C-alpha cells in the first residue's frame, strides 16, 4: 500500500515523516555570496565610476601626500585659464583659415596655426615661471604637492655633489675608451660610419618619398600626405623613448638643468624639422641638402649673436665659397627653372627658416652642455620631451591627429614608411652622440659630409632630378669648401696642441 505523501500544514516537503527518533541536525547554511557588483541594476557605469573615485581618494589619503597650498591653486589657475583661452583662439583661427574642401592649407597659415598650438604651452609656462620667481614660491611656506614638480621644471636639482659625479663618470668612460686597440677603434669607426650613412640615407630617401609621393590603398584610391608636423611628432616620440631606454640602461650623472631651458632648443628643433619637411613641397631634395651644407653661414651669424664667438679667417673663406657654390647650383638646377616664382620664393624662405632655427638649436645646446654638464642622452631626452608635448598639443587642437591616423590606416605603405623613418631618425641621433663622444666632432663632420654627397647622388638617381653642368660644379664647390673647413680646423687644433706642449716644456 502506498504511503500518504500529503504535506501537513506548517510542514515542508523536505521534512521527514514523524517517527520515534528525532531528525538529524543539519549544519547551518553558508551565507550566499553577494553578486551585487556583478549583476542587476546596481552594476551601472555611474556607480562603477563613483566606486573608482572613492578608491582613488582612499588611496591618496593613505599615501599622506602634502596638501595643496594657495600658491598651488594660483599656478593651476594660470595653466587652466591660459590653456582654455588659447584653445578657443586656435579653434577660431581654424574656422577662419580653413581651406576649401580638397585643398591643403598654405604653408604660412599652417605655420600660424602651429604657433598658436605651441603658445598653449609657452604662454602659461612663461607666466608660471614669472609667478614662481616673483613670489619665491620654492623658498617660502611648507612643502606642497606641486612643489617638487615646479622645482624640477623651474630650478632643477641642487648643484652640490653633481659636479663630482659627472667628472668621475666622464673619467671612467675616457679610460675605457683609451684602453681600445687600433683594430678595435677601426672597427668601431666603421660601425659608426655605416650606422650614420645607413640611417640618414634611408631617412632622407623616405623623407622625400613621403612628401612627394601619391600613396595607393588596396582599392586603388590615391592620396598624398601633407602634414609635416605629424611626421615631426612621430620622429620625436620614438627618439624620446629610445633616450629614456638608454638612460635607464646606462649609468648617467645626476641631472641638474631646469627642464624649461630645453623648451627653447626644442621649439627651434621642431621648427627646423617642420621647415625641412615643408620645403620638399617647393624645392627638390638636392636643393635642400645643399642648403643644409650651407648652414655654416647662419651658424656663424648666430654664434656671433648668441655667444659672441670669434672665427678664423679660413671660416669666412669657406662661407664665401659655399655661397658661390649655392648660387651656381641654383642657376643650373632645371627643376628650379621650371618652378614658378611663388614656389621658388616659398621654398627659399622656408630653407632660410630651417637654417636659422637649426643654427640656434646647435648654439643653445652648446650653451646648455657648457653650463650644466649633462650627457648627450639627457639632452636628447629633454629636447624630445618638449618636442612631443608641443607637437601633440598642436596636433590635437587642429584635429590632425585623427586625420593623420586615418590616412595611416587607409594607406598601409605610408604607415610602414613612417615607422622606418622614425627608427632611422632615432637611431641616427644615437649614432651621432656616440660618434662624437668616441671620435670627436671632426670625424663626425667628415662622415656627415660624405653622407650629404651620397644623399644628393642617391636622390638624383632614384627621383630623376636633372642637373646642368653648372649645378654639378656648384655641388663640387660646396663640398670642397666643407672638406677645406674640416682640414683647416684640424690643422689649427694640432698647431694649438703643439704650442701648448712646447710651453709646458
Features:
single chain; 505 residues
Please tell me about this protein's structure.
With 505 residues, the protein is an all-alpha fold. The protein is 73% helix and 1% strand. It has 17 helices and 2 strands. It has helices at residues 45-63, 70-97, 107-135, 147-154, 162-178, 182-212, 228-249, 262-279, 285-293, 296-306, 313-332, 334-338, 341-372, 376-398, 400-410, 412-462, 469-504; strands spanning 215-216, 222-223. The chain has a two-stranded antiparallel sheet with strand order 1-2. The chain starts with 44 loop residues before the first helix and ends with a helix. Residues 1-15, 32-43, 160-166 and 336-342 have low confidence and may be disordered.
Q: Count the DSSP helices.
A: 17
- Whole-angstrom Rg: 32 Å
Number of E-type strands: 2
Uncertain regions: pLDDT < 50 for 5+ in a row?
1-15, 32-43, 160-166, 336-342
Q: How are the strands ordered across the major sheet?
A: 1-2
Q: What's the SSE pattern?
A: HHHHHHEEHHHHHHHHHHH
Identify the overall geometry: globular
Provide the β-strand percentage band: under 5%
Q: Whole-Å distance between the termini?
A: 132 Å
Residues in helices, as a percent range: over 70%
Structural class: mainly alpha
Most strands sheet: 2 strands, antiparallel
| Mean pLDDT over all positions | 76
Amino acid at each position: 500500500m502506498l504511503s500518504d505523501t500529503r504535506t501537513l500544514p506548517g510542514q515542508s516537503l523536505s521534512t521527514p515523516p514523524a517517527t520515534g527518533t528525532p531528525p538529524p541536525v543539519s549544519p547551518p547554511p553558508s551565507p550566499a555570496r553577494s553578486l551585487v557588483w556583478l549583476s542587476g541594476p546596481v552594476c551601472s557605469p555611474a556607480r562603477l565610476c563613483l566606486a573608482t573615485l572613492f578608491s582613488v581618494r582612499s588611496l591618496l589619503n593613505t599615501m599622506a601626500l602634502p596638501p595643496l597650498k594657495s600658491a598651488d591653486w594660483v599656478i593651476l589657475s594660470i595653466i587652466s585659464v591660459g590653456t582654455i583661452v588659447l584653445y578657443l583662439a586656435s579653434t577660431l583661427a581654424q574656422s577662419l583659415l580653413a581651406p576649401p574642401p580638397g585643398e591643403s592649407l598654405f604653408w604660412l597659415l599652417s605655420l600660424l596655426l602651429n604657433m598658436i598650438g605651441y603658445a598653449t604651452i609657452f604662454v602659461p609656462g612663461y607666466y608660471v615661471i614669472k609667478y614662481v620667481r616673483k613670489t619665491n614660491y620654492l623658498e617660502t611656506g611648507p612643502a606642497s604637492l606641486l612643489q617638487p614638480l615646479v622645482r624640477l621644471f623651474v630650478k632643477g636639482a641642487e648643484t652640490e655633489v653633481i659636479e663630482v659625479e659627472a667628472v668621475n663618470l666622464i673619467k671612467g668612460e675616457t679610460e675605457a675608451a683609451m684602453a681600445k686597440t687600433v683594430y678595435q677603434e677601426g672597427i668601431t669607426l666603421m660601425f659608426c660610419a655605416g650606422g650614420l650613412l645607413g640611417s640618414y640615407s634611408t631617412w632622407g630617401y623616405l623623407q622625400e618619398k613621403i612628401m612627394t609621393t601619391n600613396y595607393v590603398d588596396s582599392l586603388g584610391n590615391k592620396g598624398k600626405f601633407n602634414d609635416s608636423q605629424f611626421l615631426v611628432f612621430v620622429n620625436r616620440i620614438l627618439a624620446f623613448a629610445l633616450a629614456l631606454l638608454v638612460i635607464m640602461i646606462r649609468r648617467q650623472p645626476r641631472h641638474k638643468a631646469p627642464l624649461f631651458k630645453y623648451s627653447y632648443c626644442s621649439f627651434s628643433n621642431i621648427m627646423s624639422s617642420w621647415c625641412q619637411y615643408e620645403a620638399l613641397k617647393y624645392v627638390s631634395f638636392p636643393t635642400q641638402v645643399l642648403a643644409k651644407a650651407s648652414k655654416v653661414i647662419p651658424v656663424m651669424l648666430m654664434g656671433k649673436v648668441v655667444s659672441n664667438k670669434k672665427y678664423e679667417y679660413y671660416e669666412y673663406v669657406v662661407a664665401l665659397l659655399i655661397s658661390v657654390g649655392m648660387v651656381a647650383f641654383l642657376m643650373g638646377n632645371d627643376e628650379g627653372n621650371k618652378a614658378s616664382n611663388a614656389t621658388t620664393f616659398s621654398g627659399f624662405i622656408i630653407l632660410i627658416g630651417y637654417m636659422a632655427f637649426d643654427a640656434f638649436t646647435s648654439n643653445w645646446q652648446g650653451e646648455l652642455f657648457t653650463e650644466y654638464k649633462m650627457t648627450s642622452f639627457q639632452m636628447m631626452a629633454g629636447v624630445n620631451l618638449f618636442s612631443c608635448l608641443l607637437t601633440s598639443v598642436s596636433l590635437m587642437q587642429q584635429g590632425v591627429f585623427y586625420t593623420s591616423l586615418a590616412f595611416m590606416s587607409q594607406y598601409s605603405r605610408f604607415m610602414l614608411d613612417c615607422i622606418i623613418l622614425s627608427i632611422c631618425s632615432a637611431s641616427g641621433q644615437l649614432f651621432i652622440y656616440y660618434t662624437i663622444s668616441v671620435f670627436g666632432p671632426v670625424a663626425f663632420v667628415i662622415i656627415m659630409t660624405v653622407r650629404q654627397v651620397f644623399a644628393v647622388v642617391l636622390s638624383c638617381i632614384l627621383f630623376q632630378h636633372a642637373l646642368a653642368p653648372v649645378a654639378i660644379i656648384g655641388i663640387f664647390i660646396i663640398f670642397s669648401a666643407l672638406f677645406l673647413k674640416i682640414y683647416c680646423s684640424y690643422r689649427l687644433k694640432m698647431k694649438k696642441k703643439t704650442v701648448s706642449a712646447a710651453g709646458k716644456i
